[in-house]
Recover the amino acids of this structure.
Protein backbone atom coordinates (compact mmCIF):
# COMPACT_ATOMS: atom_id res chain seq x y z
CA UNK A 1 0.00 0.00 0.00
CA UNK A 2 2.86 2.36 0.88
CA UNK A 3 4.43 1.81 -2.57
CA UNK A 4 1.12 2.65 -4.28
CA UNK A 5 0.72 5.83 -2.21
CA UNK A 6 4.32 6.87 -2.95
CA UNK A 7 3.71 6.32 -6.66
CA UNK A 8 0.53 8.44 -6.58
CA UNK A 9 2.35 11.19 -4.65
CA UNK A 10 5.18 11.19 -7.21
CA UNK A 11 2.71 11.44 -10.10
CA UNK A 12 0.92 14.40 -8.48
CA UNK A 13 4.25 16.11 -7.76
CA UNK A 14 5.61 15.68 -11.27
CA UNK A 15 2.31 16.72 -12.84
CA UNK A 16 2.36 19.99 -10.90
CA UNK A 17 6.07 20.41 -11.61
CA UNK A 18 5.40 19.95 -15.34
CA UNK A 19 2.78 22.72 -15.22
CA UNK A 20 5.26 25.03 -13.47
CA UNK A 21 7.97 24.30 -16.00
CA UNK A 22 5.69 24.73 -18.95
CA UNK A 23 4.48 28.13 -17.78
CA UNK A 24 8.02 29.14 -16.85
CA UNK A 25 9.12 28.23 -20.36
CA UNK A 26 6.32 30.30 -21.86
CA UNK A 27 7.50 33.27 -19.82
CA UNK A 28 11.09 32.58 -20.76
CA UNK A 29 10.46 32.71 -24.51
CA UNK A 30 8.03 35.61 -24.46
CA UNK A 31 9.01 38.65 -26.52
CA UNK A 32 11.44 40.59 -24.33
CA UNK A 33 13.95 42.01 -26.78
CA UNK A 34 15.40 42.11 -30.25
CA UNK A 35 18.68 40.24 -29.66
CA UNK A 36 20.51 43.45 -30.67
CA UNK A 37 19.19 43.14 -34.23
CA UNK A 38 18.56 46.26 -36.29
CA UNK A 39 15.22 44.88 -37.46
CA UNK A 40 12.21 43.52 -35.60
CA UNK A 41 11.14 39.88 -35.76
CA UNK A 42 7.63 39.46 -37.15
CA UNK A 43 6.89 37.02 -34.32
CA UNK A 44 7.46 39.78 -31.79
CA UNK A 45 5.15 42.13 -33.69
CA UNK A 46 2.24 39.67 -33.68
CA UNK A 47 2.89 38.67 -30.06
CA UNK A 48 2.43 42.24 -28.78
CA UNK A 49 1.06 44.37 -31.64
CA UNK A 50 -0.13 47.19 -29.36
CA UNK A 51 3.46 47.66 -28.24
CA UNK A 52 4.58 48.44 -31.79
CA UNK A 53 1.52 50.17 -33.35
CA UNK A 54 2.38 53.73 -34.31
CA UNK A 55 6.12 53.04 -34.39
CA UNK A 56 8.42 53.12 -37.40
CA UNK A 57 9.82 49.61 -37.78
CA UNK A 58 12.37 47.83 -39.93
CA UNK A 59 11.44 44.29 -40.95
CA UNK A 60 13.35 41.81 -43.10
CA UNK A 61 12.15 38.66 -44.78
CA UNK A 62 11.16 36.92 -47.98
CA UNK A 63 8.23 37.75 -50.24
CA UNK A 64 5.55 35.09 -50.04
CA UNK A 65 2.99 36.80 -52.28
CA UNK A 66 2.41 40.17 -53.88
CA UNK A 67 -0.63 41.69 -55.50
CA UNK A 68 -1.41 44.94 -57.20
CA UNK A 69 -4.35 47.31 -57.51
CA UNK A 70 -4.85 50.75 -59.02
CA UNK A 71 -3.55 52.84 -56.13
CA UNK A 72 -2.15 50.34 -53.65
CA UNK A 73 0.13 47.28 -53.77
CA UNK A 74 0.41 44.58 -51.13
CA UNK A 75 3.24 42.26 -50.14
CA UNK A 76 2.99 39.31 -47.75
CA UNK A 77 6.30 39.09 -45.89
CA UNK A 78 7.63 36.18 -43.82
CA UNK A 79 10.91 36.08 -41.89
CA UNK A 80 10.71 32.49 -40.59
CA UNK A 81 10.06 33.40 -36.94
CA UNK A 82 6.33 32.65 -37.21
CA UNK A 83 3.93 31.06 -39.65
CA UNK A 84 2.07 34.39 -39.91
CA UNK A 85 2.87 36.80 -42.75
CA UNK A 86 3.11 40.54 -42.17
CA UNK A 87 1.21 42.50 -44.78
CA UNK A 88 3.11 45.44 -46.28
CA UNK A 89 0.85 48.17 -47.70
CA UNK A 90 2.41 50.27 -50.47
CA UNK A 91 0.94 53.61 -51.53
CA UNK A 92 1.82 53.66 -55.24
CA UNK A 93 1.70 57.48 -55.37
CA UNK A 94 4.81 57.56 -53.17
CA UNK A 95 6.97 55.28 -55.32
CA UNK A 96 7.87 55.11 -58.99
CA UNK A 97 5.81 52.33 -60.54
CA UNK A 98 8.79 50.77 -62.32
CA UNK A 99 10.59 50.22 -59.03
CA UNK A 100 7.78 48.29 -57.35
CA UNK A 101 8.84 44.81 -58.25
CA UNK A 102 8.71 42.28 -55.41
CA UNK A 103 8.79 38.77 -56.92
CA UNK A 104 7.98 35.72 -54.80
CA UNK A 105 11.10 34.50 -53.00
CA UNK A 106 12.98 37.80 -53.03
CA UNK A 107 14.80 38.85 -49.86
CA UNK A 108 13.79 42.38 -48.83
CA UNK A 109 14.04 44.98 -46.10
CA UNK A 110 11.03 47.20 -45.46
CA UNK A 111 10.83 50.31 -43.30
CA UNK A 112 7.45 51.70 -42.38
CA UNK A 113 4.85 52.61 -39.79
CA UNK A 114 2.90 49.81 -38.10
CA UNK A 115 -0.84 50.42 -38.00
CA UNK A 116 -3.83 48.46 -36.80
CA UNK A 117 -5.72 46.33 -39.31
CA UNK A 118 -9.19 44.87 -38.89
CA UNK A 119 -8.39 41.85 -41.03
CA UNK A 120 -4.72 41.20 -40.20
CA UNK A 121 -4.44 42.64 -36.65
CA UNK A 122 -1.68 44.92 -37.90
CA UNK A 123 0.13 45.88 -41.11
CA UNK A 124 3.10 47.98 -42.16
CA UNK A 125 2.62 51.14 -44.23
CA UNK A 126 5.73 51.28 -46.40
CA UNK A 127 8.10 54.28 -46.17
CA UNK A 128 11.23 52.84 -47.80
CA UNK A 129 12.64 49.51 -48.92
CA UNK A 130 15.73 47.69 -50.10
CA UNK A 131 15.97 44.54 -52.22
CA UNK A 132 18.49 42.34 -50.43
CA UNK A 133 18.31 39.35 -52.75
CA UNK A 134 16.73 39.16 -56.20
CA UNK A 135 14.69 36.12 -57.20
CA UNK A 136 14.10 35.27 -60.88
CA UNK A 137 10.83 34.16 -62.45
CA UNK A 138 11.92 30.50 -62.59
CA UNK A 139 11.93 30.25 -58.79
CA UNK A 140 10.23 26.85 -58.29
CA UNK A 141 8.19 27.74 -55.19
CA UNK A 142 5.49 29.95 -56.57
CA UNK A 143 2.17 30.61 -54.82
CA UNK A 144 0.45 27.24 -55.23
CA UNK A 145 0.23 23.90 -53.45
CA UNK A 146 3.20 21.66 -54.12
CA UNK A 147 3.19 17.95 -53.39
CA UNK A 148 5.49 16.67 -50.67
CA UNK A 149 7.04 14.31 -53.23
CA UNK A 150 7.94 17.27 -55.45
CA UNK A 151 9.38 19.21 -52.52
CA UNK A 152 11.62 16.28 -51.52
CA UNK A 153 13.53 16.81 -54.76
CA UNK A 154 14.74 20.19 -53.50
CA UNK A 155 15.55 20.02 -49.77
CA UNK A 156 17.57 23.24 -50.06
CA UNK A 157 14.42 25.16 -51.02
CA UNK A 158 11.50 23.26 -49.49
CA UNK A 159 12.23 24.56 -46.00
CA UNK A 160 10.94 27.94 -47.24
CA UNK A 161 7.40 26.59 -47.59
CA UNK A 162 4.78 26.92 -44.86
CA UNK A 163 4.80 23.19 -44.17
CA UNK A 164 8.49 22.89 -43.58
CA UNK A 165 9.10 26.07 -41.61
CA UNK A 166 6.30 24.93 -39.30
CA UNK A 167 7.84 21.46 -39.00
CA UNK A 168 11.19 22.94 -38.05
CA UNK A 169 9.66 25.27 -35.46
CA UNK A 170 7.79 22.40 -33.81
CA UNK A 171 10.94 20.29 -33.96
CA UNK A 172 12.86 23.08 -32.23
CA UNK A 173 10.18 23.39 -29.52
CA UNK A 174 10.24 19.62 -28.87
CA UNK A 175 14.04 19.72 -28.56
CA UNK A 176 13.92 22.66 -26.15
CA UNK A 177 11.21 20.98 -24.08
CA UNK A 178 13.29 17.79 -23.91
CA UNK A 179 16.27 19.64 -22.46
CA UNK A 180 13.97 21.54 -20.13
CA UNK A 181 12.42 18.35 -18.76
CA UNK A 182 15.68 16.52 -18.10
CA UNK A 183 17.60 19.50 -16.76
CA UNK A 184 14.80 20.28 -14.29
CA UNK A 185 14.87 16.65 -13.06
CA UNK A 186 18.61 16.65 -12.31
CA UNK A 187 19.75 14.75 -15.39
CA UNK A 188 23.21 15.56 -16.70
CA UNK A 189 23.50 16.12 -20.46
CA UNK A 190 26.40 14.09 -21.88
CA UNK A 191 27.83 13.90 -25.40
CA UNK A 192 28.42 10.32 -26.48
CA UNK A 193 30.73 9.58 -29.43
CA UNK A 194 29.44 9.30 -33.00
CA UNK A 195 32.35 7.04 -33.96
CA UNK A 196 32.47 3.75 -32.05
CA UNK A 197 34.19 0.40 -32.14
CA UNK A 198 31.11 -1.72 -31.41
CA UNK A 199 27.60 -2.30 -32.67
CA UNK A 200 25.25 -1.52 -29.78
CA UNK A 201 22.33 -3.48 -31.19
CA UNK A 202 24.44 -6.35 -32.50
CA UNK A 203 22.42 -6.37 -35.71
CA UNK A 204 25.24 -5.56 -38.11
CA UNK A 205 23.36 -2.68 -39.75
CA UNK A 206 26.22 -0.22 -39.34
CA UNK A 207 28.07 2.30 -41.46
CA UNK A 208 31.82 1.75 -41.45
CA UNK A 209 34.18 4.67 -40.97
CA UNK A 210 37.42 4.39 -42.90
CA UNK A 211 40.17 6.43 -44.56
CA UNK A 212 41.38 3.47 -46.65
CA UNK A 213 40.97 3.26 -50.39
CA UNK A 214 39.70 -0.06 -51.65
CA UNK A 215 42.16 -2.89 -52.13
CA UNK A 216 41.80 -6.64 -51.88
CA UNK A 217 45.32 -7.55 -50.80
CA UNK A 218 44.48 -8.25 -47.14
CA UNK A 219 43.61 -11.83 -46.20
CA UNK A 220 41.30 -10.89 -43.29
CA UNK A 221 39.22 -7.91 -42.14
CA UNK A 222 41.52 -7.47 -39.15
CA UNK A 223 44.54 -7.25 -41.43
CA UNK A 224 42.76 -4.82 -43.76
CA UNK A 225 41.69 -2.40 -41.02
CA UNK A 226 44.92 -2.71 -39.01
CA UNK A 227 46.44 0.01 -41.20
CA UNK A 228 43.35 2.23 -41.02
CA UNK A 229 43.06 5.45 -39.01
CA UNK A 230 42.04 3.76 -35.73
CA UNK A 231 43.97 0.55 -36.33
CA UNK A 232 40.71 -1.43 -36.29
CA UNK A 233 37.20 -1.30 -37.68
CA UNK A 234 35.19 1.76 -36.69
CA UNK A 235 31.49 2.52 -37.13
CA UNK A 236 29.01 5.36 -37.00
CA UNK A 237 27.03 4.80 -33.83
CA UNK A 238 23.57 3.23 -33.88
CA UNK A 239 22.98 4.36 -30.29
CA UNK A 240 24.69 6.28 -27.52
CA UNK A 241 23.34 3.84 -24.93
CA UNK A 242 26.45 1.87 -24.05
CA UNK A 243 28.51 5.00 -23.46
CA UNK A 244 25.49 6.56 -21.71
CA UNK A 245 25.44 3.67 -19.24
CA UNK A 246 29.09 4.45 -18.46
CA UNK A 247 28.16 8.01 -17.55
CA UNK A 248 25.12 6.90 -15.52
CA UNK A 249 27.36 4.71 -13.34
CA UNK A 250 29.04 7.90 -12.16
CA UNK A 251 26.44 10.66 -12.54
CA UNK A 252 23.28 8.72 -11.66
CA UNK A 253 20.90 10.27 -14.22
CA UNK A 254 22.08 11.27 -17.68
CA UNK A 255 20.72 11.84 -21.14
CA UNK A 256 22.21 12.16 -24.58
CA UNK A 257 20.50 13.74 -27.56
CA UNK A 258 21.97 13.51 -31.03
CA UNK A 259 22.15 11.81 -34.41
CA UNK A 260 22.52 8.05 -34.81
CA UNK A 261 23.00 5.96 -37.93
CA UNK A 262 21.60 2.67 -39.16
CA UNK A 263 22.45 1.05 -42.50
CA UNK A 264 19.01 -0.49 -42.75
CA UNK A 265 18.09 -0.90 -46.40
CA UNK A 266 14.51 0.10 -45.78
CA UNK A 267 12.35 2.34 -47.92
CA UNK A 268 9.43 2.80 -45.54
CA UNK A 269 7.88 6.05 -44.37
CA UNK A 270 9.24 5.52 -40.82
CA UNK A 271 12.93 4.75 -41.42
CA UNK A 272 15.94 6.90 -42.24
CA UNK A 273 19.64 6.07 -42.28
CA UNK A 274 20.47 9.12 -40.16
CA UNK A 275 18.02 10.05 -37.43
CA UNK A 276 17.96 11.62 -33.97
CA UNK A 277 17.44 9.95 -30.62
CA UNK A 278 16.95 11.07 -27.04
CA UNK A 279 18.54 8.45 -24.76
CA UNK A 280 18.37 8.78 -20.96
CA UNK A 281 20.04 6.29 -18.61
CA UNK A 282 19.08 6.14 -14.94
CA UNK A 283 21.03 4.35 -12.18
CA UNK A 284 19.05 2.57 -9.44
CA UNK A 285 15.96 2.46 -11.65
CA UNK A 286 14.03 -0.70 -12.44
CA UNK A 287 11.56 -1.14 -15.30
CA UNK A 288 8.51 0.37 -13.49
CA UNK A 289 10.59 3.44 -12.61
CA UNK A 290 11.72 4.11 -16.17
CA UNK A 291 8.17 3.58 -17.48
CA UNK A 292 7.01 6.42 -15.19
CA UNK A 293 9.78 8.68 -16.48
CA UNK A 294 8.90 7.91 -20.11
CA UNK A 295 5.25 8.78 -19.54
CA UNK A 296 6.07 12.02 -17.72
CA UNK A 297 8.58 13.07 -20.35
CA UNK A 298 6.37 12.36 -23.37
CA UNK A 299 3.41 14.16 -21.83
CA UNK A 300 5.55 17.13 -20.88
CA UNK A 301 7.05 17.78 -24.32
CA UNK A 302 3.71 17.36 -26.09
CA UNK A 303 2.03 19.70 -23.61
CA UNK A 304 4.82 22.21 -24.15
CA UNK A 305 4.19 22.24 -27.90
CA UNK A 306 0.44 22.61 -27.41
CA UNK A 307 1.06 25.68 -25.24
CA UNK A 308 3.82 27.27 -27.31
CA UNK A 309 3.12 26.29 -30.93
CA UNK A 310 -0.64 26.82 -31.20
CA UNK A 311 -0.44 28.46 -34.64
CA UNK A 312 1.76 25.69 -36.04
CA UNK A 313 -0.48 22.94 -34.66
CA UNK A 314 -3.54 24.69 -36.13
CA UNK A 315 -1.76 24.71 -39.51
CA UNK A 316 -1.05 20.97 -39.39
CA UNK A 317 -4.59 20.22 -38.26
CA UNK A 318 -5.96 22.23 -41.16
CA UNK A 319 -3.77 20.71 -43.88
CA UNK A 320 -2.47 17.33 -42.68
CA UNK A 321 -4.35 15.66 -39.82
CA UNK A 322 -7.89 16.48 -38.80
CA UNK A 323 -8.36 16.08 -35.06
CA UNK A 324 -4.64 16.57 -34.34
CA UNK A 325 -5.22 18.83 -31.34
CA UNK A 326 -7.66 16.36 -29.78
CA UNK A 327 -5.16 13.53 -30.34
CA UNK A 328 -2.39 15.44 -28.59
CA UNK A 329 -4.62 16.50 -25.71
CA UNK A 330 -5.73 12.89 -25.28
CA UNK A 331 -2.10 11.82 -24.94
CA UNK A 332 -1.37 14.52 -22.36
CA UNK A 333 -4.46 13.77 -20.27
CA UNK A 334 -4.77 9.97 -20.51
CA UNK A 335 -3.31 7.29 -18.26
CA UNK A 336 -1.07 5.14 -20.45
CA UNK A 337 -1.99 1.45 -20.58
CA UNK A 338 0.52 -1.21 -19.50
CA UNK A 339 0.03 -4.48 -21.41
CA UNK A 340 1.95 -7.76 -21.24
CA UNK A 341 3.40 -8.88 -24.57
CA UNK A 342 1.75 -12.28 -24.12
CA UNK A 343 -1.62 -10.60 -23.59
CA UNK A 344 -1.05 -8.40 -26.66
CA UNK A 345 -0.49 -11.48 -28.82
CA UNK A 346 -3.71 -13.04 -27.54
CA UNK A 347 -5.67 -9.87 -28.30
CA UNK A 348 -4.29 -9.83 -31.84
CA UNK A 349 -4.98 -13.53 -32.41
CA UNK A 350 -8.57 -13.13 -31.25
CA UNK A 351 -9.24 -10.00 -33.35
CA UNK A 352 -12.34 -10.63 -35.47
CA UNK A 353 -12.64 -7.28 -37.24
CA UNK A 354 -9.34 -7.29 -39.11
CA UNK A 355 -7.11 -9.55 -41.21
CA UNK A 356 -3.43 -8.92 -40.57
CA UNK A 357 -0.84 -9.16 -43.29
CA UNK A 358 1.52 -10.69 -40.72
CA UNK A 359 -0.05 -13.33 -38.47
CA UNK A 360 0.67 -12.55 -34.80
CA UNK A 361 2.61 -15.33 -33.06
CA UNK A 362 4.27 -15.49 -29.66
CA UNK A 363 8.00 -14.97 -30.16
CA UNK A 364 7.66 -12.70 -33.18
CA UNK A 365 8.04 -8.92 -33.42
CA UNK A 366 4.93 -6.77 -33.32
CA UNK A 367 4.46 -5.23 -36.75
CA UNK A 368 3.23 -1.70 -37.35
CA UNK A 369 -0.26 -3.01 -38.17
CA UNK A 370 -0.34 -4.83 -34.82
CA UNK A 371 0.84 -1.80 -32.88
CA UNK A 372 -1.72 0.49 -34.47
CA UNK A 373 -4.56 -1.99 -33.92
CA UNK A 374 -3.74 -2.21 -30.21
CA UNK A 375 -3.51 1.57 -29.76
CA UNK A 376 -6.21 2.75 -32.16
CA UNK A 377 -8.87 0.03 -32.03
CA UNK A 378 -8.51 -1.71 -28.69
CA UNK A 379 -7.35 0.87 -26.12
CA UNK A 380 -7.57 4.15 -28.08
CA UNK A 381 -4.59 5.61 -26.26
CA UNK A 382 -0.83 5.07 -25.79
CA UNK A 383 0.17 1.59 -24.61
CA UNK A 384 3.31 0.22 -22.96
CA UNK A 385 3.84 -3.39 -24.10
CA UNK A 386 6.12 -5.07 -21.55
CA UNK A 387 8.10 -8.30 -21.08
CA UNK A 388 9.01 -9.25 -24.64
CA UNK A 389 10.56 -12.62 -25.57
CA UNK A 390 14.30 -12.40 -24.99
CA UNK A 391 15.17 -13.81 -28.43
CA UNK A 392 13.75 -10.78 -30.26
CA UNK A 393 15.31 -8.16 -28.03
CA UNK A 394 18.82 -6.82 -27.56
CA UNK A 395 21.52 -8.60 -25.56
CA UNK A 396 21.74 -5.92 -22.85
CA UNK A 397 18.16 -6.25 -21.56
CA UNK A 398 17.59 -7.74 -18.10
CA UNK A 399 16.45 -11.34 -18.18
CA UNK A 400 13.25 -12.06 -16.28
CA UNK A 401 13.05 -15.00 -13.81
CA UNK A 402 10.92 -17.00 -16.29
CA UNK A 403 13.99 -17.44 -18.51
CA UNK A 404 11.92 -16.61 -21.62
CA UNK A 405 11.33 -12.87 -21.45
CA UNK A 406 13.22 -9.66 -20.68
CA UNK A 407 12.29 -6.57 -18.67
CA UNK A 408 11.68 -4.44 -21.74
CA UNK A 409 8.89 -2.27 -23.05
CA UNK A 410 7.94 -0.36 -26.17
CA UNK A 411 5.65 2.65 -26.00
CA UNK A 412 3.10 2.47 -28.79
CA UNK A 413 1.05 5.51 -29.77
CA UNK A 414 -1.99 5.80 -32.05
CA UNK A 415 -1.24 6.76 -35.60
CA UNK A 416 2.40 5.76 -35.66
CA UNK A 417 3.05 2.69 -33.50
CA UNK A 418 6.33 2.30 -31.61
CA UNK A 419 7.91 5.57 -30.55
CA UNK A 420 9.99 4.61 -27.48
CA UNK A 421 12.13 1.55 -26.79
CA UNK A 422 12.89 0.97 -23.13
CA UNK A 423 14.35 -1.64 -20.80
CA UNK A 424 16.00 -2.40 -17.55
CA UNK A 425 19.62 -3.22 -18.35
CA UNK A 426 21.16 -6.55 -17.38
CA UNK A 427 23.35 -5.85 -14.34
CA UNK A 428 24.56 -9.45 -13.84
CA UNK A 429 27.95 -10.07 -15.47
CA UNK A 430 27.47 -13.79 -16.13
CA UNK A 431 23.98 -13.38 -17.58
CA UNK A 432 25.19 -10.58 -19.86
CA UNK A 433 28.06 -12.72 -21.17
CA UNK A 434 25.62 -15.60 -21.69
CA UNK A 435 23.32 -13.37 -23.76
CA UNK A 436 26.23 -12.15 -25.87
CA UNK A 437 27.53 -15.68 -26.48
CA UNK A 438 24.05 -16.82 -27.54
CA UNK A 439 24.15 -14.13 -30.24
CA UNK A 440 27.71 -15.04 -31.32
CA UNK A 441 28.97 -11.56 -30.49
CA UNK A 442 32.65 -10.61 -30.25
CA UNK A 443 32.92 -10.29 -26.47
CA UNK A 444 36.38 -8.72 -26.68
CA UNK A 445 34.80 -5.63 -28.28
CA UNK A 446 32.64 -5.10 -25.19
CA UNK A 447 35.23 -5.50 -22.39
CA UNK A 448 34.72 -1.97 -21.08
CA UNK A 449 30.95 -2.46 -21.07
CA UNK A 450 31.34 -5.71 -19.15
CA UNK A 451 33.61 -3.97 -16.64
CA UNK A 452 30.62 -1.89 -15.54
CA UNK A 453 29.09 -5.16 -14.27
CA UNK A 454 32.23 -6.01 -12.30
CA UNK A 455 32.82 -2.74 -10.51
CA UNK A 456 29.87 -1.49 -8.47
CA UNK A 457 27.11 -2.74 -10.73
CA UNK A 458 23.62 -1.54 -9.75
CA UNK A 459 20.14 -1.90 -11.24
CA UNK A 460 19.72 0.66 -14.00
CA UNK A 461 17.36 1.39 -16.86
CA UNK A 462 17.05 3.60 -19.88
CA UNK A 463 15.15 4.32 -23.03
CA UNK A 464 15.58 5.65 -26.53
CA UNK A 465 12.98 7.76 -28.26
CA UNK A 466 13.03 8.25 -31.98
CA UNK A 467 12.91 12.03 -31.99
CA UNK A 468 11.93 12.26 -35.65
CA UNK A 469 8.98 9.91 -35.09
CA UNK A 470 7.90 12.12 -32.21
CA UNK A 471 7.99 15.11 -34.57
CA UNK A 472 5.87 13.09 -37.02
CA UNK A 473 3.36 12.28 -34.30
CA UNK A 474 3.03 15.86 -33.07
CA UNK A 475 2.78 17.44 -36.54
CA UNK A 476 0.69 14.78 -38.24
CA UNK A 477 3.30 14.35 -40.98
CA UNK A 478 3.18 10.80 -42.33
CA UNK A 479 6.71 10.42 -43.72
CA UNK A 480 9.97 10.73 -41.79
CA UNK A 481 11.55 12.37 -44.87
CA UNK A 482 9.35 15.41 -44.24
CA UNK A 483 10.48 16.10 -40.67
CA UNK A 484 14.23 16.02 -41.38
CA UNK A 485 16.00 19.02 -42.89
CA UNK A 486 18.08 16.79 -45.18
CA UNK A 487 16.73 13.22 -45.07
CA UNK A 488 19.22 10.39 -45.55
CA UNK A 489 17.63 7.25 -46.93
CA UNK A 490 18.70 4.35 -49.11
CA UNK A 491 19.90 5.52 -52.56
CA UNK A 492 19.15 9.14 -51.63
CA UNK A 493 21.85 11.64 -50.73
CA UNK A 494 21.00 15.17 -51.81
Amino acid sequence: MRKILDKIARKIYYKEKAKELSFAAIKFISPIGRCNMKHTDIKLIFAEPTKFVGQSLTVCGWVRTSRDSKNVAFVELNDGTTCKNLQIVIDKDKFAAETLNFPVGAGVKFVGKLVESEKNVCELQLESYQILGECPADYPLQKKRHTLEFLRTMPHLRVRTNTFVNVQRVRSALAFASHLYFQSHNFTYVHTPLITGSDCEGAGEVFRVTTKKWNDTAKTEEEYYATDFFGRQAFLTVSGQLEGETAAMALGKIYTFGPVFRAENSNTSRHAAEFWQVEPEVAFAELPDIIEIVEEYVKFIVDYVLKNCANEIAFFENFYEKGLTDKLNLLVNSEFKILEYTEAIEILKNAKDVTFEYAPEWGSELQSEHERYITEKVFKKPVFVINYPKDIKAFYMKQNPDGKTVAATDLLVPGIGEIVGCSEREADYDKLVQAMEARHMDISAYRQYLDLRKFGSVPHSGFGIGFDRMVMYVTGMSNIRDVLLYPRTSKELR
In short: The chain has two domains: 42-144, 162-482. The two ends are 58 Å apart (CA to CA). The CA atoms of residues 239 and 260 lie 6 Å apart. The chain is about 35% helix and 25% strand.
